[in-house]
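Appendix C: a fully annotated inverse folding record. The material below is reproduced so that readers can follow the format used throughout the book. The structure is listed first as tokens, followed by the designed sequence.
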């Protein structure tokens, strides 16, 4: 749970503090893409923005700039193959909404932070954009953005906070939820629905059926 909170908090900083050049649908390079990514996110910060509006704005960013399907499939791991096609589609929809709501809930306290790109390097078919986030009075936190270009558009495929993968952390969490529910992948769907309706925390057990 502590690692999960760290991810949500630091990624919220990244989305809320990147005030760079206006975002373009065809960023010239991965570094420019990551720098411009938060230009929309900064508008979601502040107590004056209603929670639902913050969620809607972050949902747009997440859909446009993250490789949601591949991140979700990786996070589900081997259990993806055990779901029916209908369950797979339900999972991707719930995964996206649960992630959006959890991140959006953490945005408000992180105004005034700064993010800077400190370098890039190739990684297989991807590019890793190395950044640092600094909150007022806090120590820098390293965030590495894995970015891939597809059909002329950049997408975030993973985010590492202090060298720990966001999607690997989610995969461990989802596996634990499934194992706590008799090894049934379908139980995760009920848990994600419960998370969306609740306060953003992922329960470990599916709600009882009536």
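Designed amino acids, in order:
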């Amino acid at each position: 749970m502590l690692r999960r909170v760290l991810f949500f908090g630091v990624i919220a900083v990244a989305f809320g503090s990147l005030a760079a050049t206006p975002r373009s649908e065809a960023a010239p390079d991965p570094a420019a893409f990551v720098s411009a990514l938060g230009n929309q996110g900064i508008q979601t910060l502040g107590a004056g923005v209603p929670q639902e509006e913050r969620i809607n704005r972050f949902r747009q960013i997440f859909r446009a700039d993250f490789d949601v399907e591949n991140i979700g499939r990786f996070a589900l791991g081997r259990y993806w193959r055990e779901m029916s096609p209908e369950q797979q589609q339900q999972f991707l929809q719930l995964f996206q909404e649960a992630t959006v709501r959890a991140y959006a809930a953490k945005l408000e306290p992180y105004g005034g932070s700064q993010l800077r790109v400190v370098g890039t390097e190739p990684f297989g078919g991807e590019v890793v954009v190395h950044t640092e986030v600094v909150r007022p009075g806090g120590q820098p936190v390293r965030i590495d953005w894995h970015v891939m270009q597809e059909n002329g558009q950049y997408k975030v495929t993973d985010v590492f906070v202090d060298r720990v993968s966001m999607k690997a952390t989610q995969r461990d969490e989802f596996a634990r939820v499934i194992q706590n529910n008799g090894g049934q992948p379908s139980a995760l769907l009920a848990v994600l629905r419960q998370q969306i309706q609740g306060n953003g925390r992922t329960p470990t057990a599916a709600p009882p059926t009536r």
